[in-house]
Amino acid sequence: MRLCMNKIRAYLFAGSTLTIILVAVFLWVLNVGKPSEYTTEPFNILIILTIIAIICLAAFFARGPVFNIYGKLEAVNINAILITVLVIIQMAFFFEIISVHNQILNYQVYDKIRYATTVAERSTDEDLDRDLTHLLSFSITDIMVLDEDGNVIHSSDQNLIGTLSVEDNYTFPFGDGRRIKFIIDRTYNHDELRNEILDLLTVLVTSIFFSVEIVIMMLRIIQRKIEASITDDSLGTAIVEDDQSKMISALYYIRQISFVFYFASRLSSAFIPTMAKELINPLSFISDNTAAGLPQSAETLLTCSAIFITTIILERKGWKLPFMSGLILVALGTFISAISPNLPVFILSRAVVGLGYGLCWMTLRNLSLFGKDEKEKLLGFALLNAGIYAGMNCGSALGAILADIFGYRTVFVISAVLTIMTSLFIIKLENSILPRKNTNNAKKGVDSLHTDTKEGKVLSSDIIPFAQKIQAIIFVILMIAPASIAASYLTYYLPLYFQNMGASTTDVGRAQLIYGIIIVYAGPMLSMFLITAADKSLKTMNIVYSLMIAVSLFVPGFGSGILLPFLGAGLLGLADSFGFGVQNNYYLSLPAIEHLGASRSLSVLSFTKKMLEMIGPFVFAAAIIIGYQAGIRLLAVIFGLMAILFIILGKKKNELHHNRRP
């Protein structure tokens, strides 16, 4: 037992060390393109900190509280030490590189001042005004020469000549009693440092997500091996449980599989529309904004085509065939995206990605159905969602940073390679076929629909009352459609909006990161609060959800700048954190949908949402014809009115039902 614990400690140390090294390497990649004077000292400190961190981890895993008194792994302690080490390394590196960068920026300003002063001293009075204009830069916005009384006698801005100017820290002697004064843009240094600070904070947050998933993965693998060794040891003295009572490895590792897949495949999610807009467009009759939405729509359309066929393959061949096929298609489409010479090829490549993504996505969703009971199935769904959002958070944020450093095409190649590498994780997992429903029970259920036990009347199970159909259609149009279309705010609107205002691709990744973090951490608490406040009314919570979507879109339309779009992403994440669940549950509880059965209903819901998501980019493209702010405000108002209309129709239905009662 002691030997086994030592092996586990060594395994955890190796995995944690690898995580620390990966984060350190990414920090190096993030800054490798900068001048050596920026990075030499910070890189040396990063190396020293990494070595110290590895030594600390070695001490912890050798003698620390890795196990409790019962011999079970202490996941909280392991996560705490790894996150603490990561935070310390990155914060120390953060302050060092920002400090060095700030010093160098100030030095560069004074170096430009010395150069400008030297050039100005060589100029004649006749040419001085013109030469001062040529010496301006991003950090130096104006240069003027003052006489002994402080009057401006020469300036890069002719309107200032003859005015009185007060000396400051950037005023220097200029010969013959004159002085030369430089007007420095103090926001220039702040803007340069702000972008670097935000990049480092983004890496810090995503590295915490990444480390948590790595620790969970290591613990799951260890636990699985322990269970296997216990089973092997008990073969001679105990009866081995039937295979059906043991959770299959795919469901056991569903969180890790979904994390790795979404991390790899979502690296490029922040810049698909912007790249589409920049490619050569031979289709002259299509506007740039519409063309920017075509790749995403093609991807969603092909995802829809995989929804129904995936279940059939799962029932006949098992989960590995559709998932591996999906991985190959996603990697192939992503690689073609990297080498696309024009828009049509890029659209085709995203369609291939969509088909592969649909196979993987529906396989992961159906994996939860492999659980032997309802508790295991619910656990599967919870683990799946945790892995999906953790992977999306890390992938979109880090992919956006890499795109700003190396370009879009390089990130596509990285994404394709990592997607293929995902297959290495699942290749040793056992295959399993999706269990089909018991045909006898199904037949019995169908037969029961034909007989009304109270009145002895024979009813047709295929006939759905018209009123129930209308109820389902109204919910799809007024509630599901706005929520599905609003998803394009993150994937279509924000990339184009930030590009239009001159912001970076990294800002798109940060907005998507905010959205994902709020969904992961605010969702459970908000769901519990709304269930209590709304007295468990799914209809009320759906109305709240739709109104919150309208507000989240109205906020970025309220004014310009970078802060409001981030706030809108956060509000949308807050809405989706509980809205996905309540909308699905209400839809599946509608009488017309219940008539289809749970499996078909889920497939129809997925298909409906994906089709609506497909038209999302075109809806936003049409809206922003009148302007980015005005267009999204208009969408917000329309979505809000649709929610109000749903309330009104619901009240009228209740009144009619009340009047018909005897």
Automatic annotation (TrEMBL):
Per the database record, which ranges form the Major facilitator superfamily (MFS) profile domain? Answer: 250-655
Extract the InterPro entries matched here.
MFS (IPR011701), MFS_dom (IPR020846), MFS_Efflux_Transporters (IPR050189), MFS_trans_sf (IPR036259)
Q: Can you cite an annotated GO cellular component?
A: plasma membrane
Q: Name one GO molecular function term.
A: transmembrane transporter activity
Q: Which Gene3D superfamilies match?
A: MFS general substrate transporter like domains
Instruction: Report the transmembrane regions from the record.
Output: 12-31, 43-63, 75-95, 197-219, 321-339, 345-367, 379-402, 408-427, 472-493, 513-531, 543-567, 618-650
One Pfam family name from the record? MFS_1
Say yes or no: keyword Cell membrane present: yes
Keyword set, alphabetical order = Cell membrane, Membrane, Transmembrane, Transmembrane helix, Transport
Localization in the cell: Cell membrane
Q: Does the keyword Cell membrane apply?
A: yes
How this chain sits in the membrane, per its record, is: Multi-pass membrane protein
Protein name in UniProt: Major facilitator superfamily (MFS) profile domain-containing protein
Q: What is the lineage of its organism?
A: Bacteria, Bacillati, Bacillota, Clostridia, Lachnospirales
